[in-house]
Amino acid sequence: MNEAAPEANAKQPGTMDRMHRLRDHSLAGLRSPRSPRRPRLWFEILLIAVSYWLYSMVRNAVPEQKAAALANADWIWSAERFLGIAVEQSVNHAVNSVTWLIVSMNYYYATLHFIVTIGVLVWLFRRHPGRYAAARLALFATTAAALAGYYLYPLAPPRLMNGSRFIDTVMVHQTWGSMASGNFKNMSNQYAAMPSMHIGWSLWCGLTVFALASAPWARVLGLLYPAVTLIVIVSTANHFWLDALGGLACLSFGYAVSYAWYGALPHHLPKRIPRGAARRPRLSALAVHRAKAAAGRN
């Protein structure tokens, strides 16, 4: 018995090391559902396509509630005049007098909302895969909150208010600038102006680029993009100032959801994920418990 004891003791360190590795590996497996993973291109394309289809379907399925939307618009306009910030009409008329500028804004409103958002998602996917999932979750949660807003608070844009002097710049200049004007007005719910997802998405893009880009000029552009978008949505009479605050509130909710799930804001997560991390097998809580017990005995 005395001769067998040294041999058992010699094997003990190796056994303990294996138990510790098993324990650490098991704990990592338990954390994996909330840990960032390497995104898969085919899955992300499918997810974004399906999500946007659902977003459009739900947004357009929300009852227009025209009377309530117009009443809410009158209330918003009165509240802004009380606060001394009701300058949307002046901005709308001033910018509309410069044809090349307002036409450019119409196309900006119609296109960059999608192009820039998709561009930032692609950039994150390629350059910051470890942060991609958390940032994408923040964007999706922001959009989900906006859908709730469209349902709970129908709101007419300024250009559709009763008796207002706002100019529908798309109609006046005959440009393709809004899915809620001209030939496209029957394809979109015109009374879903609160919150402004042009602001919610552009702020998401701008903050993401500002937080993660290394080039100073890119960070400056990141800050300018939502600021210019705010001017555009007001100049084209598609939104009130307060709609922008609604978009900001939705974005705050989106980041809160992302933080609650991943335990950190996207820019605080690792830039990249080791290739082997995504292939680690997940072990059950029972396996973790057995690994701890075995390590304790040794």
UniProtKB/TrEMBL annotation:
<feature type="domain" description="Inositolphosphotransferase Aur1/Ipt1">
    <location>
        <begin position="75"/>
        <end position="256"/>
    </location>
</feature>
<feature type="transmembrane region" description="Helical">
    <location>
        <begin position="191"/>
        <end position="213"/>
    </location>
</feature>
<feature type="transmembrane region" description="Helical">
    <location>
        <begin position="137"/>
        <end position="153"/>
    </location>
</feature>
<protein>
    <submittedName>
        <fullName>Phosphatase PAP2 family protein</fullName>
    </submittedName>
</protein>
<keyword id="KW-1133">Transmembrane helix</keyword>
<keyword id="KW-0812">Transmembrane</keyword>
<feature type="transmembrane region" description="Helical">
    <location>
        <begin position="41"/>
        <end position="58"/>
    </location>
</feature>
<dbReference type="InterPro" id="IPR026841">
    <property type="entry name" value="Aur1/Ipt1"/>
</dbReference>
<feature type="transmembrane region" description="Helical">
    <location>
        <begin position="107"/>
        <end position="125"/>
    </location>
</feature>
<dbReference type="InterPro" id="IPR052185">
    <property type="entry name" value="IPC_Synthase-Related"/>
</dbReference>
<feature type="transmembrane region" description="Helical">
    <location>
        <begin position="220"/>
        <end position="238"/>
    </location>
</feature>
<keyword id="KW-0472">Membrane</keyword>
<dbReference type="Pfam" id="PF14378">
    <property type="entry name" value="PAP2_3"/>
</dbReference>
<feature type="transmembrane region" description="Helical">
    <location>
        <begin position="244"/>
        <end position="265"/>
    </location>
</feature>
